[in-house]
Amino acid sequence: MTTGIHHVTGITRRVQANVDFYAGFLGLRLVKRTGGFEDAEQLHLFYGDKLGSPGSLITFLVWEDGAPGRVGHGQVAEIALSVPPDSIGDWLTRAMTARIPVEGPSREFGETVLRLKDPDGVIVKLVGVDAPATAPLPDPIAPTRLRGVTLFTEDAAGTRDFLGQFGYRAEAASGAVQRMVSDRDAVDIRDASGYFPGIPGTGTLDHVAFRAASVDEVRARRLALKDTDVTSVHDRKYFLSLYVRDPAGILLEYATDAPGFTLDETSEELGRTLFVPPHDAARAEDLRVMLPQFALPGEERMPMRDLHFTHRFHRPENPDGSTIILLHGTGGNETDLMPLAHRIAPNATLLGVRGRSTEEGINRWFRRYDAVTYDQADIRSEAEAFTAFVEDATRAYGLDPDRIGFLGYSNGANLLGAILQLHPDAVRKAILLRGIQVLEAPPASTAEALQGAKVLMLNGARDPFARMAPALEQQLSRLGAEVDSQTLPVGHELAADDLQASKDWLA
């Protein structure tokens, strides 16, 4: 029976910092980048040895700017990587030089251990132990493979017995920790009774996967687990697997070694191409625009700034120097309009921004009392804040202010309409998709306030809010803007007509 850990999966909220730590500081190889198989709008990164061998893999789901979780019982809590025993001092020096949080060295089960924290706060232990790599990395002191994981559980005996099905046997115990070992690695079970439960989110580890020799072994295991919450067998392209929770609720996976990561890339090119799951192939172009971009160590990058609005860039392969700033609709996020904007202007840099107001957990740009009654003070406050954000982003990222345009949909278009009236110099070119007048008392600006500004308003003939659009059109025109208002044969939703009308207007 093949035993040991196949991979460990965590969740990160900062893709660039994650890449810098795992590929840069630790020196692991990024062997695959793909859209998530459960959610293709979620980037999934795989790090490992030179070939991404099972037993060397740490993977991360990217929830860019996502909510942090909490480490507690019912979770995988720590990762351990094997490094050459005589390299611990070098790693301590490297960590201190790079200002990586580090504790130790200490001794755990007779092994020398350094405890690091990655940028999300995940505990990564470097364990000095002779554990040869299947496919060694170039750095002679680079991690060789996974040494193990630590599980936090309220049912230590149940977790221990459950792991026996995957080839683990009890070895030593130290305090509240029971060590289970396979032929290659270890799982430390910490009795966390009385500790608070874990909460999924960024900065936590989602699951640990154990190795299966074949698909038949996975299917046999599924039958053996038929009285649990075991899932069906999933095709993850690079391996087949199932998921199950142990008696304490810890998520475990059982995954085949084959076919592996060289299925769609040569060994020399591993990790260079962004792939999309086969079942999402029809959306491949859109997903490649929406998924967060990053630079590998040594590649050119633009440092992200900590500004007052959550934001994300998409930089095209051949940028033309223009930028489109995107404002999503109610319930959207900073990536929602990127596919549409990319089709409208394929060579424009896209800057998606997330609204700061929330309503029952969904993103908005300002508060409302009902569907057509809005918090006027909040509109003015957020309009001012967003105008300041644009000024800060223009300076921080070196954007050309004369080549910035705006695209807003629904609630985002409404904020743009308000900004045009309240801060006439902030927006000179804008496309408002289903925008309406949300200001109850528009400012008494001069007729020349928007002189030179160009606005395209695309309204829906079947949009229940369309009756409020003419008031915005009239006010913008009164302030001197050149307004092109069109009514499309659609409702409030976005449609193909929006793409064509926007392209024609920009042409």
TrEMBL record:
Xref: InterPro entries: AB_hydrolase_fold, Extradiol_RC_dioxygenase, Glyas_Bleomycin-R_OHBP_Dase, Glyas_Fos-R_dOase_dom, PLipase/COase/thioEstase, VOC_core
Gene3D superfamilies the UniProt entry points to: 2,3-Dihydroxybiphenyl 1,2-Dioxygenase, domain 1, alpha/beta hydrolase
Pfam families, per database record: Abhydrolase_2 (PF02230), Glyoxalase (PF00903)
Domain VOC, residue spans: 4-129, 145-257
Keyword Cytoplasm among record annotations: no
Molecular-function annotations in GO: dioxygenase activity; hydrolase activity
Protein name: Ring-cleaving dioxygenase
Species per Swiss-Prot/TrEMBL record: Paracoccus litorisediminis
